[in-house]
Amino acid sequence: MSLSREWRRLRELDWRALDVKESGAWPWSLQLFCCLLVLGLAFGGVHWYLAAPKVAGLVDAKHQERELMRDYRDKAAQAASLPVVRKQVAELEERISALREMLPTDAEIPALIDHISETAIGNQLEIDIIRLRSPVEQEFYIEQPFDIQVRGDYHRIAYFLAGVASLPRIVTQHDFTLEPTGDQGVLRLSMLAKTYRYRPPGGGDEAQ
């Protein structure tokens, strides 16, 4: 059967008169086209019903694989650096413990005030005021401020400040005011000093 004859049959075909029941009498090219169309639709339906969900599952699995590999690499890096981190934590804990030893407890505050007074007297200063203020609670420590006012010459006041800074307990010095008193060579030092007590995260003051 020649292609020209088949093409002529297609052109002369009355498409409106086609009947599926008589498909065996259709031109072979039309039959072939219909068979291919049915096979294509059947293949598309099977793919949509069976293969498409599996393809979507495969895409999800690959995404999860990438996520798991990234987590694995992160955790492997953390595991490799764990000994270094543990060493750093141990060093930090030692430093914190040493600093805590330098903080007075509530019961040691009066002794600290006595040491400051002795430092002033040892430098031949006259004490006007050493007076505690109300404590200020912070998250991990309690701040204990107190006012200091002493009189003496410039060099003795400087030695006094150095002595306070070198006390075994931490004392910080703030708001210095240095002014003449009217007496020859005598100055008045007024300042705010602060010491600190450790406060455990769970509650009140901790004895040392």
From TrEMBL:
It comes from Litchfieldella qijiaojingensis. It comes from the Bacteria. InterPro entries: PilO, Transl_elong_EF1B/ribsomal_bS6. Keywords: Membrane, Transmembrane, Transmembrane helix. It holds the Pfam family PilO. This is Pilus assembly protein PilP. The chain crosses the membrane at residues 28-50. Gene3D superfamilies: 3.30.70.60, Helix hairpin bin.
